[in-house]
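Below is how a single chain appears once it has passed through the pipeline. First comes the sequence as given, then the structure the pipeline wrote out for it. We keep one example in the README because the format questions we get most often are answered faster by looking than by reading.
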Amino acid sequence: MTALHRRTLLSTAALLALGAHLPARAARVGQPAPDFSLPDTSGKTVRLADFRGQFVVLEWTNPGCPFVRKHYESGNMGATQKLAREQGLVWLAINSTETMSGDYLEPPKLADWVKQRQGTPTAVLMDPEGSTGRAYDAKVTPHLYIVDPQGTLVYAGGIDSIPSARVSDIEKATNYVKAALGDIAAKRQIAQAVTKPYGCVIKYKT
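Resulting structure:
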């Protein structure tokens, strides 16, 4: 075997190993949202398909992230969740942090953390293997998506327009999710269906 042949085989193996951690086809706006089945913080299995016929907001979260804390500790995330649920939407908060990360919280502690900050999601789901996060190509926390009643992804991006961890920036920012909720309530297409998410890189299992 020549040196060139060995290098080619090693490069191919490296690419295959990398590919094993990437989604075969990440979700995109306008395409079907990948179904998933995850346990909530009480151990109950929740499937996206259970909510077919309703709009569903997916929120990637991690309490160890200052950008997540900005929106929860200010009450902004809870208020946005409450607005969505008052409109009849389902809100699923998903934590894809791997168990070996210092940011990982056991399910009961995560549930308490959200509740203490007036969070009102329909459910908080655990994705420590990262399979659902990777299927959606979720990159940061918070990273948000909206799925329509037919199961199509209609929004992907950030919660708002100012990428900072400062609470004082919330009132100056455009809340993209609230704007999308307004479009949904008015039965019109979401005006800004793709925006740039910001936050902490998700601590996926490697």
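The beta strands are 37-39, 45-47, 56-60, 90-95, 123-126, 140-141, 143-147, 153-157, 200-201.

See the next section for the split statistics.
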